[in-house]
Amino acid sequence: MSAGTQEEPLNSGPTVLRILLGAQLRRLREGKGISREDAGYEIRASGSKISRMELGRVSFKERDVADLLSMYGVKNDAEREALLGLARQANNPGWWHHFGDILPPWFQSYLGLEAAASLIRTYEIQFVPGLLQTPEYARAVILLGHAGANADEIDRRVELRRQRQQILDRTEPPQLWAVIDEAVLRRPIGGPEVMRAQIEALIEAAKKPNIRLQIIPFHAGGHAAAGGPFAILRFPEPELPDVVYVEQLTSAIYLEKRDDVDHYAIAMERVCIDAEPPSHTQEILGKLLHEVGRLG
User: Fold this and answer.
1) Could you give the angle at the alpha carbon of 159 between the alpha carbons of 153 and 165, nearest 5°?
2) Using CA atoms, how far apart are residues 72 and 256, in angstroms rounded to an integer?
3) Whose CB among 73, 124, 214, 261 lies 3.0–4.6 Å from 275's, allowing a Cys bridge?
4) Angstrom distance (rounded) from CA 213 to CA 207
5) What is the spatial distance between Cα 68 and Cα 38, in angstroms, rounded to a whole number?
6) pLDDT score of 16 more than 50
7) How far is CA 146 from CA 102, 138, 286, in A?
């Protein structure tokens, strides 16, 4: 994606716009052989601030970007305006801004990446992936972690999850490839009625052309990614590397170094092999739905 042909912020999100702008600033700086420390001095900041800017981890002041462009020898008005326009867009709040009071900063970053991804591969061992949860199932999951929250906060958290799911139905949706451990579907989150509706929703989701769903059966035994859930996100912009997202109880890890991403990519390929093929998914879910029906 060039600086002059950005998608609407709803799709790309400020997180990815910051990463794109940071990557372009880094290339310009390195092309001139300028150190991070010297660039930082130019905008009355430190070399570490330049590093954070180039990684897209902080917001951009338009004046700072203008000063850096001058330092890097960017004099063409059209090129300067394209990059300054990118800085302005990158500072626009994402759609999740209205949920800022209930969202930890580390998850806001993920929402920006998720909104911009062209391929989302996820492996889950405890819950149905958030992008595929029904409102009732989502509510039950949220209550597990926020039992003391009031009804309004719970409602807002459910609505946040619902709005996340809209990316799967937009004009050019991402591809979602989810691998779910069988234990996820046998864990009675919310009770039989909630699980029945959730499994029915998964059956419908598996029919969509942009969703591939696989289930790892119990009889597969141990498998390569048994350590915990994770997601790998790929973006349409060639400048952006794949990102691995590993969520923890009170934080998250983002990995983008090639060796780290390759390690998780290999683990994901192995769980896809261990899982039943996508063509079997609806049959497996149908049997589970029948079993849940007997419990109800």
Assistant:
1) 145
2) 26
3) 214
4) 9
5) 10
6) yes
7) 11, 12, 32
